[in-house]
Design brief:
Helix content is about 10%, strand content about 40%. It is mainly beta.
Length: about 750
């Protein structure tokens, strides 16, 4: 180390090369400040003997140094303008280049003493200092000892040089002693004390902001500006930026700059930076710098809506977007509805727009809306936007209004279709089954009507449809039954073309070609009601008449389904009186049958009493029309019915209330079948009330046939032997006779 130090101090060429390498070393960042010039000594000692020369070299950040150089000796400007000067006088020297500021002063001393203490130059913060004790005649000295503030520095006895850290200098004074050999012996020599000059490694940094007065929301660049001398350009520095006492960014960084993407008004604070070596040997901080952020007031506030146009359907989502063209910093957006004090929503954020979402809009959300924006300079309002909410129609309700309880052909009914909800106008369509009847518009919403004149074909299902352009809705189906009045019935007598005689059974058939069921038919003989029969499903009905006496006369029928009675034309009947013997046989049979059936009828009446009820007037309890027989009396005579040439003797049949039950066995023709014919005739009104199964539609005469057995003419003996058994069978058949048939004449 000693040899190296001596070589560096004496070899100027080597020193210049070393200095050049330091100046050209990379990694040094230049700031906007003009760096200080730097003075380099060759040899690098601040104390020298008289008569020796020292070369001063002025350097700046440029290599080589450009332009004129100014030199100062004890603050006096020298005439020298070159980059190097040689000096031999003690004093303070400074220099300045065109691209730098004035260098720190360098004190160079020339001594006439025999022993001097030399210190290496330059010495920067954190550097090691070389101290060398030197005599005029180096070969005559020995026992070199170094002192700091009068105290010996141990461990360095008789060393040509020692090394100490500049951080431990603390303005201390150093000197050395040595033994000088002379002609008269050795003597001790002491050097004059020196103070070591320590230069700044780098000046305190200066914080700059670009731009210096930033607009809120804009980026800002901070620079921590300092510089290293050319000799120390290889040293690495690191930087940290602070707002008040809070570190910015990621902390320490090798970059002397920091980019703030966006600065806000609340960031108007004091900023400063700090620089240090990566070894942490030297650390310096800048002065605080105040940065004031400029705020731009909001302007051009606009309200937009999604979906565009402001027309929504109930249930859709509404988005209100409030935006500003200009404005910085934190902006407070608020949304309002005209006519209400309450703020719908308020949002504060750093952006030029904000949105409010109203999910599932309702009819009550319709109205005029506006928004406001404010960044402390006062709210600015947008223009008003109208929001309309259209409501799809609800499911309509169809009602049918008729002039009577039961609609009749020819009536005019009103079909009314009404949707309780839905934006107008609403178009209503009316349907019968799947056929369109017509349409009606409701400009103000709610309901619409359609009048329909009924025909027989208008019975069926009716429905309606409501549509306001947002989707059609169908009503439930409504059933309408149109009642058709009966037409004039036609009476026919069966069998036709034969000669009726007493004891025959004559079928009277009455039929109306038109009329809604059920239809009640009455049968008459010379204005006397014979009986009635019900056609529950429409069509005709029959009535069987047993010819007991001379039935010649006028016959007609009446039909009624609750909408009025229609009477047929009169049919004239003439018949032939049978022989006396046949009348006697018939009379005996009838009397015998009456005695048997009387018992059975009484029993059946008691059973039926608890099973049926009778109601009178208009429609029966089962919906069967009823009317008085007197309603259809006295029709005109027409269509005479003649079966023989003999004019019968006219006799009036007994009134129904005076008739008694008659029983007789009938064997018509040679068919081999024997029937029992039963005439069940209601005698009094009291008996009618006591028989629950004798409905009002079954008043009067009822004829029932029951097959007893087959007759075999060739087997009269066996027929006689089985008379008792047949009689038992007959009783069983009688017991099965119903008290009233479901339809008269069956």
């Amino acid at each position: 180390m000693r040899q190296t130090f001596l070589a560096l101090s004496e070899d100027k060429v080597t020193m210049h090369l070393w200095l050049l390498l330091l100046i050209l070393a990379p990694g040094r960042e230049q700031s906007g400040l003009a760096p200080k010039a730097f003075i380099h000594l060759t040899p690098p000692w601040s104390v020298n003997f008289d008569g020796e020369k020292v070369t001063l070299t002025c350097r700046d950040s440029n290599s080589p140094t450009r332009g004129d150089i100014s030199w100062y000796y004890n603050d006096n400007l020298l005439k020298e303008e070159s980059g190097e000067i040689q000096i031999m006088k003690t004093g303070y020297y400074k220099c300045k280049t065109k691209g730098s500021s004035l260098s720190d002063p360098v004190h160079v001393r020339f001594s006439s003493d025999w022993l001097i203490l030399q210190a290496s130059h330059p010495v920067f913060e954190g550097d090691y200092v070389y101290l060398r004790c030197r005599g005029r005649k180096e070969e005559d000295i020995s026992e070199k000892i170094y002192y700091k503030d009068g105290e010996e520095l141990g461990g360095n006895y008789n060393s040509d040089s020692i090394t100490i850290n500049s951080d431990s200098l603390d303005n201390s004074k150093y000197h050395c002693t040595a033994s000088r050999r002379g002609f008269w012996g050795s003597r001790k020599e002491t050097s004059k004390p020196i103070q070591i000059q320590v230069q700044e490694l780098f000046p305190p940094p200066v914080l700059t902001a670009s731009p210096s007065q930033p607009i809120e929301g804009s980026p800002v660049t901070l620079k921590c500006e300092t510089w290293l001398p050319p000799e120390k350009s290889y040293i690495q520095l690191q930087f940290c930026f602070f707002r008040e006492d809070q570190a910015l960014g990621s902390g320490w960084s090798s970059s002397s700059g920091l980019q703030i993407p966006a600065i806000w008004s609340e960031d108007s604070r004091s900023y400063w930076c700090q620089a240090e070596t990566v070894t942490h040997s030297t650390m310096k901080r800048s002065l605080k710098s105040q940065i004031r952020v400029q705020r731009v007031p909001v302007s051009d506030v606009n309200l937009e809506i999604q979906p565009p146009g402001g027309k929504l359907i109930e249930g859709e989502n509404l988005v209100l977007i409030c935006s500003v063209t200009k404005g910085t910093g934190t902006i407070t957006f608020s949304w309002h509805r005209e006519g209400t004090i309450r703020i719908l929503e308020k949002k504060t954020q750093r952006s030029l727009s904000a949105e409010l979402q109203i999910p599932t809009v309702k009819e009550s959300d319709a109205g005029r809306y506006y928004c406001a924006a404010d960044n402390i300079h006062g709210p600015i309002l947008s223009t008003l936007i109208t929001i309309t909410v259209r409501i799809p129609v609800s499911r309509p309700v169809l009602t049918i209004r008729a002039p009577r309880a039961q609609a009749v052909v020819g009536d005019v009914v009103e079909l009314r279709c009404e949707a309780w909800r839905g934006s107008p106008p609403i178009l209503y369509q009316f349907y019968h089954e799947d056929a369109t009847l017509g349409s009606s518009s409701a400009p103000s919403g709610r309901a619409a009507s359609f009048n329909l004149s009924l025909t027989a074909d208008h019975s069926g299902n009716y429905s309606c449809e409501a549509d306001n352009g947002l989707g059609a809705q169908h009503s439930d189906k409504v059933i309408l039954s149109v009642t058709v009045p009966v037409s004039r019935p036609v009476l026919t007598l069966n069998p036709a073309g034969t000669q009726p005689v007493v004891g025959d059974v004559l079928e009277l058939r009455c039929e109306a070609q038109r009329g809604s069921p059920p239809i009640l038919y009455w049968f008459y003989h010379d204005n006397v009601a014979l009986g009635k029969s019900l056609a529950p499903f429409g069509g005709g009905a029959s009535f069987n008449l047993f010819l007991m006496a001379q039935p010649s006369g006028n016959y007609f029928c009446g039909a009624n389904n609750g909408l009025g009675v229609q009477c047929s034309e009169v049919v004239r009947l003439n018949f032939t009186v049978p022989s006396r013997s046949k009348i006697i046989l018939i009379t005996v049979g009838v009397i015998s049958g009456l005695l048997i059936i009387l018992v059975l009828a009484a029993t059946a009446a008691l059973v039926c009493k608890f099973k049926t009820q009778r109601k009178s007037g208009g429609l029966s309890a089962t919906g069967i029309p009823s009317y008085s027989p007197n309603e259809c009396q006295g029709p005109s005579l027409s269509k005479p019915f003649r079966t023989g040439t003999q004019e019968p003797t006219h006799s009036e049949p007994p009134v129904l209330m005076d008739l008694q039950p008659v029983y007789s066995n009938v064997n018509p023709g040679d068919s081999g079948l024997v029937y029992s014919e039963i005439w069940s005739i209601q005698r009094t009104k009291e008996n009618l009330a006591n028989s629950p199964r004798m409905h009002q539609e079954h008043e009067g005469l009822t004829v029932i046939y029951s097959e007893l057995k087959k007759s075999h003419p060739d087997d009269s003996a066996s027929q006689a032997r089985s008379s008792d058994r047949a009689h038992d069978d007959d009783r069983e058949n009688y017991e099965n006779v119903p008290c009233a048939s479901s339809a008269l004449g069956h």
